[in-house]
């Protein structure tokens, strides 16, 4: 489908990012997967290239390009490179906006330039061993000491970049009598009482680290509180809408690429004297997938425009995530099927696309939670 979505400047940015991936990431991809994380140096080079938190205002070291399409095209290029460990959505969108939107001037001046340069990586820590979808079930808590400082205790899990990150936006309860009252706190690597746990072994995203985090009497000064410590829930509602459009925008290129791989494979392989692509089943499957992806793409591009205009509401973001990730799931599954057993082998890229895709319907809110958000908007 022809898209009139990107400007010529954005296409130039795409070229620069593609060259960066070809130079700094793709040649080392097998090693990154082996070690379970990308070399730290790559993030600094990404910062030098202007690819990290480019949306941050110039006063805080960014390029001031408040346009999500730059992120969107980077997700497309990351998928195209087949090395998904450089998770631009997590680096640019999942946690830094909390500092930019709700942080103090001092916090913005201290942290944002380092997130832009890649000197620091920031992660978001919400999920806990006993509570993921059910935010009210969080046990991690921060107790005020009366002088503006806080003491943080608890545990988080499944945290993307848990080992690579230097800075964490941590959600914690701030009122024991109110399960819905949360605050957001900044925790820095090396603070006494804070330690990352083990690197978790995952199905996909093999070159991107995911880990547990432990907080034991971590003392947080007033400079480590983001905004109002009673309003974390509200902040997260807005932040999650951004995380959901991000997940949608990461999912659809994966679906597009799966279809492209299926076309390549089925036109090159024969069975029963004809190309796999010549079976009517193959044609119908690919045609259905193409129609699904084109519809989802039009919806996604529209949601990106709404986001850029500050008009993307949480329910529409949830609908976009639900639709794009479901289309992705069908696309990788059908495309793998068309590869036969080759699709199950790591040496074929469809195998990794399939494994990476499975998390899209779970993180940033599961598909079931997306339906709850959408239904609440419809029915109250
Ligand atoms: C690779 C990876 C990266 C991640 N990165 C991060 C990160 O950076 N930061 C972070 O905080 N978290 C992260 N997560 C965690 C992820 O966001 C959560 O695991 C996810 O939100 C689901 O929570 P849960 O696992 O506790 O599932 P649960 O909430 O226990 O849900 C289990 C099942 O029950 C269903 N369910 C729950 N409630 C309802 C309901 N009311 N109605 C119907 N069905 C329901 C769910 O849809 C799901 O199918 C990551 C996870 C992975 C695997």
From TrEMBL:
Residues 7-119 form the Acyl-CoA dehydrogenase/oxidase N-terminal domain. Its cofactor is FAD. InterPro entries: Acyl-CoA_DH_CS, Acyl-CoA_Oxase/DH_mid-dom, Acyl-CoA_Oxase/DH_mid-dom_sf, AcylCo_DH-like_C, AcylCo_DH/oxidase_C, AcylCoA_DH/ox_N, AcylCoA_DH/ox_N_sf, AcylCoA_DH/oxidase_NM_dom_sf. One of its GO terms (molecular function) is acyl-CoA dehydrogenase activity. Residues 231-378 form the Acyl-CoA dehydrogenase/oxidase C-terminal domain. Transmembrane segments: none annotated. Pfam families: Acyl-CoA_dh_1 (PF00441), Acyl-CoA_dh_M (PF02770), Acyl-CoA_dh_N (PF02771). Residues 123-218 form the Acyl-CoA oxidase/dehydrogenase middle domain. Keywords: FAD, Flavoprotein, Oxidoreductase. It comes from the Bacteria. Belongs to the acyl-CoA dehydrogenase family. This is Acyl-CoA dehydrogenase. It comes from Sphingobium yanoikuyae.
